[in-house]
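Q: For a teaching handout, I want to show students what a protein-ligand complex looks like in token form. Below are the inputs, and the small molecule is iron/sulfur cluster. Please produce the holo structure.
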Amino acid sequence: MLLRHTPKEITERSALTINPAKTCQPIGAMYAALGIHGCLPHSHGSQGCCAYHRSALTRHYKEPVMAATSSFTEGASVFGGQANLVQAIDNIFTIYEPEVIAVHTTCLSETIGDDIPQITRKAEADGKIPEGKYVIHVNTPSYVGTHVTGFANMTKAMVDYFAESTGHKIDQINIVPGYVEPSDMEEIKRIAAMMGVRVVMFPDTSKVLNRPQTGKYEMFPEGGVTVEALKTTGDSLATIGLGRLASGPAAQALDTKCNVPCEILDLPIGFKATDRFVDTLRKTLGITVPDIINNERGQLLDIITDMHQYFYGKKVALAGDPDHLIAMTEFLVSIDMWPIHIVTGTSGKKFESRIREITKDSPYPINVKAPGDMFLLHQWIKNEPVDLLMGNTYMKYIARDEDIPLIRMGFPILDRIGHSYFPIVGYRGGMRLLEKILDAILDRQDRDAPEESFELVM
Ligand code: SF4
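A: Here is the structure, written as tokens, with iron/sulfur cluster included.
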């Protein structure tokens, strides 16, 4: 196997990443842009970057992801990409007729130093942007940040470009859902709807990247937040940002720009974080939690009670995005499992301290690193083995080498299907996660059980 030579001895590395626990910034920007209705993401750089970003999203969501590119060649690389982008804007509005073009940069155009607002103004002056259509932009140099940063930046750009404050409040709240699956966005909206809360969610990739098979291709599916709805976010009563890294910048920008107060919460993964989300909705709007939500909460609690004996004391290694890892670590600790090795490829000063706070009662030493890589995670596992791995598809190499069950979670998941249709957030998402965890633990127990203890009933 590829990783079987990973050494147990850990040596200090400062300028080398091996098996990164991240992907590049524009992927997150592209994903967020797809959450605007009628938007065509545009990659301002060479074709190779755009092809990679599209294929990463297509492989994860199993849906054709469309994006345009400025198609840099040698000329643009030397003299800048203004002519390419102006031409691209003209072509895109003429041929594909999107409502919005969401431009993100790449390492190449960032290194050249292309000024996207200036180029956009030139396109506008040349009459290339039709009346009522929009070009928005975000800078996404991939030598800083990750796909999470790209998502956060593009989501903030939606505020910068569209949010307006008319002075008349609207009885609605904004939810920035974080870098989660379309199914998770759907579930967050379902919870809000059950509580009778009117919501503007941005971005919103539900019904875009988990749409039904109709036999008909639609370049711009029915999902996504509309520009009209984005404009009203400045008049909303409040904003809830789910996930500090992915949603914090947009929620805070809306507060600064339009005086919409914001609350930044963890992703509502697991019992406690979902409680906090539901409670924030309740307090913000002065409403009561309906029975239907209390029932789902009770069901999750019942499953935890039934399964707890199998979870108790199991050690877990996790890799992924900070917002997911914080919520997931808290969930695991709440069911008496012990996350002991936790790594993310995304930098964040508060991440390590938050993980240490959540795991402070652990009987084991905790290894946590941000940014770190999966090579380091593998080394930690060699030194202190675990019962379960949770992370994206790239974790399967460690799972195979160390013979440890893996639960796929986060981005990208390239070798399984269904994650974009079933949520992991909310009480119901919690139930699904628990079922996955229990199946993994008991499948392994069955596989390894001697005949005399091979149980039919658990
Ligand atoms: S890291 Fe930079 S050069 Fe590589 S695919 Fe991403 S944007 Fe393109």
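A: Two things your students might notice: The longest strand covers residues 338-344. The pocket of iron/sulfur cluster is lined by residues 24, 26, 49, 52, 106-107, 142 (CB under 6 Å).
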